[in-house]
Every structure is written in structure tokens, then in C-alpha cells.
Specification:
This protein has 83 residues and is of the alpha+beta class. Helices cover 18% and strands 30% of the residues. The protein has one domain: 2-Layer Sandwich (NE0471 N-terminal domain-like), CATH 3.30.2020.10.
Length: 83
């Protein structure tokens, strides 16, 4: 399934991403289960976690050192919320 393009991403406490899609959908994605090991463990640093950015084409998100989460995973596992 093709997911809609992301138009904005925001962080929320404790390790949540609020994802805004071109369809008007808004979803919350919990990153906490991913924050372990040397690669994703860096996301435990709240300042670093907040540096998440949208990829230029709206197909995903990433952090400065290359950590990312698959776009389909963000969409499929994200919990719908009201904007």
C-alpha cells in the first residue's frame, strides 16, 4: 500500500512523533520501542530526538546521523488523532 506524503512532523513527549499527511490525516507514532542499541539509542537524547526532519520529497523522516523509520511503518503503525 502506498502511503500519502508527509507534509509535517513534530515531536511530542516522551518519544512521540506527530505526523501530518497530505490527506489531512494526523497520526502519532511512538518511537520509544526503537530506542535501543548503538544506532537508535542516540534518540534517547531529547535534544537530538527533537531534530527529526522531513525528507524533501515527503516520503519519510530522518535524524541528522541517518536514523530513520520506514515510511510504511510510520503510516501503518501510527495511531490516528485529531489535528
Amino acid at each position: 500500500m502506498l502511503q500519502p506524503k508527509l507534509i509535517r512532523v513534530e515531536t511530542a513527549e516522551p518519544y512521540l512523533l506527530r505526523l501530518f499527511y497530505e490527506t489531512g490525516e494526523v497520526k502519532l507514532f511512538d518511537v520509544a520501542p526503537y530506542i535501543s542499541g548503538s544506532w537508535y539509542g542516540e534518540l534517547k537524547n531529547r535534544s537530538y530526538f527533537k531534530t527529526v526532519r522531513l525528507l524533501p520529497d515527503g516520503t519519510g523522516i530522518e535524524w541528522g546521523n541517518g536514523q530513520d523509520i520506514a515510511p510504511h511503518e510510520l503510516y501503518e503503525r501510527g495511531v490516528p488523532v485529531s489535528a
